[in-house]
Amino acid sequence: MSTTSDKEGGCSAYAIERALSLFEDLLAVQSVEELHRTVRQITTKLGFEHFLYGGYVRVEGVQPVEFILSGYPEPWMEQYKQSNYIEIDPIVAHCIRGKRQTPLVWNEHLFEGKERLQLWEEARAYGLQSGISLPLHVRSGEDALFSVANPTTSPAGADYLAASLGMAQLLANYTYEVVRRLVLDQHQMEIPRAALTEREQECLTWAAAGKTAWETAAILTISERTVRFHLDNVIRKLGVNNRRQAVARAVSLGLVHP
User: Which ranges carry the HTH luxR-type domain (predicted)?
Assistant: First the structure.
């Protein structure tokens, strides 16, 4: 099983603590309308004007449910659909079809070729000039992407986007967890809860507080390897792929509290 580093996504302990506080309202939403409003508010606080979440949730007994939460300009979404740009969109190819794990910072090199260049030029005309797209994949086979974008290029350019990456990834994971809950609630499906051992619960709680494996080991007076072992077990039991997803799901399920 692969593990992630303590600096996963570049989020410091302070950033994670700030994010958990910021996302409390997000985890409490009870409707799609409330989810849209809350994600927009958080996106704005992170310094972005636009956002888009798109993906599938697996529901037992039915086809996977497609869920789109768009904070993009509505005319662009219509143009995108009418032109069937999903078939040539390099962002979709990277995040969904290619099942990549790495974030994607937008640049002109992604849109090489006549058709993709036209897509890129039209997107920018609608105010989608610079941004980041984040793939989301979980063990159940669900795939999604989350993008944040601005109508202009920041003077700091790629440095600004890189600095925003960690918080954007946290927002992506928390949005996914809320989407999953709303979809399963709609289909009256109970979200399964994992049975964690006391030590797994302790390690997860400190991870949610932004502590590294080394810091958690010092707090619990156990080895760093043991902490990683317990966190890997938590990741497996929660059916996710990394520590950030584990924290988001645990908070969503009430296993830990921000």
Answer: 189-254
Mean pLDDT value of segment 115-122: 94
Record the pTM.
0.69
State the amino acid at position 241 in one-letter form: N
3-state secondary structure 13-51: HHHHHHHHHHCHHHHCCCCHHHHHHHHHHHHHHCCCCEE
- The helix/strand/coil state of 244 is helix
Beta-strand runs (E) in the chain? 50-57, 65-70, 104-105, 130-137, 143-150
Q: What pLDDT does residue 15 have?
A: 55
Taking the alpha carbons at both ends of the chain, their separation in whole angstroms is 27
Could you give the strand order of the β-sheet that contains 65-70, starting from the edge strand earlier in sequence? Answer: 65-70, 50-57, 143-150, 130-137, 104-105
Q: Is 129 within 8 Å of 72 (Cβ atoms)? A: no
Integer Cα distance of 242 and 128 in angstroms: 30
Contact 126, 70 (CB under 8 A): no
Query: What's the pLDDT tens digit per position in 153-169?
Result: 765 556 666 677 888 88
Please determine, for residue 98, whether its predicted confidence score (pLDDT) is greater than 50: yes
Lowest mean pLDDT among 21-35, 110-124, 178-192, 213-227: 178-192
Query: How far is residue 175's CA from residue 235's CA, in Å, rounded to a whole number?
Result: 18
